[in-house]
Amino acid sequence: MYMYINEKLNELFDLLDNNNDIKKISELKKRITDVELNLINDYRNNPTINNKNKLYDNSIIKEYLICENNINYLIMEINKKFKRRKVCQK
User: Fold this and answer.
1) 88 confidence band (pLDDT: 50, 70, 90)
2) Each residue of 7-52: pLDDT tens digit?
3) Is-contact 67 28, C-beta < 8 A?
4) d(Cα 48, Cα 4) in Å, to the nearest integer?
5) What is the per-residue pLDDT for 8?
6) Please, which residues have CB within 8 angstroms of residue 25's CB and are 6 or more apart in sequence?
7) CA 15, 20, 25, 30 torsion-angle sign
8) pLDDT at position 89
9) CA contacts within 13 A on the Cβ side of 88
10) Among 11, 28, 51, 63, which is disulfide-ready with 43 (CB 3.0 to 4.6 Å)?
């Protein structure tokens, strides 16, 4: 049973490694420059609507957030599957 679970987990990890959103986030992280970092810091230090709009107007940050949301939905679905099957419960 342990080997089967381990095998299935490895399959899941392989699928996640090949997920387009995860790949894209890795690519986008490499493209983040001081411009994006300044936008993020400006918003953190002064969370106004104007700073938020500037942040979301940046194409790299916008793509990153879309991918991040997609990954979060994927995580929620994975968690739901585990809870439904009660695999993680003792």
Assistant:
1) low
2) 888 888 898 889 999 999 999 999 999 999 999 999 999 999 999 9
3) yes
4) 51
5) 82
6) 64, 67, 68, 71
7) positive
8) 52
9) 8
10) 51
pTM: predicted TM-score of the whole model, two decimal places: 0.77
Say if residue 5's pLDDT is above 90: no
**Residues with Cβ within 8 Å of residue 67, at least 6 apart in sequence:** 21, 22, 24, 25, 28
- Residue 42 token pair: 């400006």
Q: Considering all CA atoms of the chain, what is the largest pairwise distance in Å, rounded to the nearest integer?
A: 55
Please return the burial class of 67, using the count of CB atoms within 10 Å of its CB with bins 0-12, 13-18 and 19+.
Answer: buried
